[in-house]
Amino acid sequence: MLDHRKGKWADVPEGHQDPLSYAISARDRTTIQMVDDAVRHKQVMLAYQPVVPAGQTERVAFYEGLVRVLDATGRIIPAREFIGAIETTETGRIIDCVALEKGLRTLSVHRDLRLSINMSARSIGYARWLRTLNEGLQNDPTVAERLILEITESSAMLVPELVTGFMDEVSQRGVSFALDDFGAGFTSLRYLKDFFFDILKIDGQFIRGIAQDADNQVLTTALATIGRQFDMITVAESVERPDDAAYLTSIGIDCLQGYYFGAPSVKPVWLNRDDRLGAA
Length: 280
Description:
The chain has helices at residues 19-40, 83-86, 90-109, 127-139, 153-156, 160-171, 189-192, 214-229, 242-250, 269-279, and strands spanning 2-3, 8-9, 44-53, 62-70, 76-78, 115-119, 147-152, 176-182, 199-202, 233-236, 255-257. The chain is of the alpha/beta class. It has a single domain (11-279), classed as Alpha-Beta Barrel (TIM Barrel). The strands form 2 sheets. An 8-stranded mixed barrel has the order 3-4-6-7-8-9-10-11, surrounded by 5 helices. The protein has a two-stranded antiparallel sheet with strand order 1-2. A hairpin with a 4-residue loop joins strand 1 and strand 2 (8-9). The radius of gyration is 21 Å and the shape is globular. The model is unreliable at 4-10 and 275-280 (pLDDT under 50). It comes from Roseovarius nanhaiticus.
């Protein structure tokens, strides 16, 4: 509350301007601590969501490995609940490392899979992350051609020259790249032709309800046209309804991803298959 004698908020520690900024800061510290605890106790995992070819949705083009952590109560916490708080911190770099380690291990064990793993452009210069990538590619020569690294549009534009140099080097080893959340950030189109993205993932804000939304139809068509111009496979994110899926297929979107085709799962179908084989 406001302490009228001192003209300041009595419950806010010295150095903080107002209750809202203090509450946000305190929440972020709590979130970072939760993720740190999960890393320390090895309570980090990947949840796998299928990406399916439009018009051939009975098969899977690749899976996206989405990082999850367990909190102190055992709840599975999705990345959207903590990534904002840790993105610029050391914890963010460590989470990128753990996600990549788990993704590479999955690819090495399951050789019929293709898998995308999210990363921040900030991890490009992080020694442990680079070492993890290099060791994974060296230990199993089949991994590179089945690994997709996803970089968000906003992250890629932080240091575009660094990102393009990194992509040039790693793509020559067979790794593919996806530009995630396209349309949500501020990509300068002059940089797009210099990147080495193979896949363009259109942000879900343009996809949800698109069958009934004329504005999003125009915007998504424009974004898809940009992708095709640069020879990128287009993926629509957050597809949740059959009419949206049908519309996206009709305008030539290459692949679809969303709850309509499968929620992210920490127990993907190939693990169930392996369990059945082991029991046979």
